[in-house]
């Protein structure tokens, strides 16, 4: 599983954890998040997330 | 070794920000010699000066370790903070807004407005904002060939935009502008409440009076919007609940005040600074007219260039390492956005205004969970204004010296006299 970082504010989307509060189940791949989802901290859209290596 | 007293005084003195090249030179020296070091001045709690882009990001990425609300969120002398605590019953910040709270309270409060200011949520406002922008461009043209662009355009347009979004009637705009300027420009005799040079004690007193005047105004706003809710932001704030309860008095007031002040002064300063940059660079206007698709690059560069919010403070909850330095729990840190936006390791030519940068990771909106709530609105309204202006402007030059506000916090140009011709 991978992690993605919002370029604008640094928010990390961790595929392992998902975002259960927002209805995104643990294990959801970044590509499979609904299209209209945006960064929960700054509102930036999905195109502006980058893959990060941990 | 700590940062020398003259250097430390330069980067905190409101007067040096009125001559920005002094601050830029001081920070260039700090970035080169002591990029993360302490300033120890007799009248202030010691504070770290965080001058590099990467260190600010590293700090703002860790909101559990670096808090906003435990100490003053902007640079304030020791006895000023003590007086604020006496006034608030122990809180280090006069106003309890998003920038002075942490953790769950911050998350819950931010969530009240956040969904309404995402790029998608504000898109429907585009036409209405363009209408406002055209009105102000016409207003500018009505001056003939000379205008103080700061006073007569840049201060007024973002004010109209934010007040429309908040739900504040147009007739209250002058009141809002005056009180915002009092709040942010206390050190400037032209703009502060007393229109005079103030002692620190007088400054705090007038800040308190301004805050009380704003609170009196907003008390009526709560009543109005609880009786008749609308989709406007002040109505969302008035009617928001956390765990089934309305926001408490300080939370409500803090929210109204930050939205009604940070929501225009920042954007106004950026817009005025962009015009100043343009008026000194004839080739820039030409480039923008030849490549209108550079508009977003122009707006982003003008935000980097102007950096209307000069700093915010954080305090460390526990020991940790940043940029190779050991920060101790309880330490106070000054995040200099102005310095970070001139960081030579991020931009090869930070002192040039360029619209052809491949990347522009400017940090004028901050970073992390406190990143500016209004950033998408600010970008959109500036883009629209400049689209409208670039269509009309044929030439622009300075008609006299520009002038900057005396302030070390939220500030920028207060006079930008220009001479212009139109197509
Ligand atoms: C060019 C325009 C603007 C600039 C440069 C700017 C800059 C900033 C900065 C530096 C912060 C602190 C970020 C941090 O701590 O990391 C901030 C926070 C904030 N800004 Fe802006 N701002 C601008 C426009 C606006 C507008 C138009 C609004 C109107 C809604 C707004 C509302 C806020 C609020 C409510 C916060 C507090 C956010 C929080 O602490 O969670 N700002 N802004
Ligand atoms: Zn983000």
Secondary structure layout:
The complex is a heterodimer of chains A (54) and B (423).
Chain A: E1 3-6, E2 12-14, E3 49-52
Antiparallel strand pairs in A: 1-2, 1-3
Chain B: H1 5-12, H2 14-18, H3 20-33, E1 36-39, E2 47-50, H4 53-60, E3 66-67, H5 78-88, H6 103-113, H7 119-122, H8 126-141, E4 146-148, H9 149-154, H10 157-166, H11 173-184, H12 200-227, H13 233-239, E5 241-242, E6 245-246, H14 249-279, H15 282-290, H16 295-306, E7 311-316, E8 320-322, E9 325-327, E10 332-336, H17 337-340, H18 375-392, E11 393-398, E12 403-404, E13 413-415, E14 417-422
Parallel strand pairs in B: 2-10
Antiparallel strand pairs in B: 1-2, 3-7, 4-14, 5-6, 7-10, 8-9, 11-14, 12-13
The structure holds protoporphyrin IX containing FE and zinc ion.
Describe the protein.
The complex is a heterodimer of chains A (54) and B (423). Chain A contains no helices and 3 strands. Chain A is mostly beta strands and 54 residues long. In chain A, strands 2-1-3 form a 3-stranded antiparallel beta sheet, with no helix packed on it. Chain A is globular. The model of chain A has no long low-confidence stretch (mean pLDDT 92). The model of chain B has no long low-confidence stretch (mean pLDDT 96). Chain B has one domain: Cytochrome p450. Chain B is of the alpha+beta class. The termini of chain B are far apart. Chain B is 51% helix and 12% strand. Chain B has helices at residues 5-12, 14-18, 20-33, 53-60, 78-88, 103-113, 119-122, 126-141, 149-154, 157-166, 173-184, 200-227, 233-239, 249-279, 282-290, 295-306, 337-340, 375-392; strands at 36-39, 47-50, 66-67, 146-148, 241-242, 245-246, 311-316, 320-322, 325-327, 332-336, 393-398, 403-404, 413-415, 417-422. In chain B, the strands form 5 sheets. Chain B has a 5-stranded mixed beta sheet with strand order 1-2-10-7-3. The A-B interface holds A 7-11, 36, 38, 41-45 and B 57, 60-61, 114, 117-121, 361, 367-369, 371, 375-376. Bound molecules: protoporphyrin IX containing FE and zinc ion.
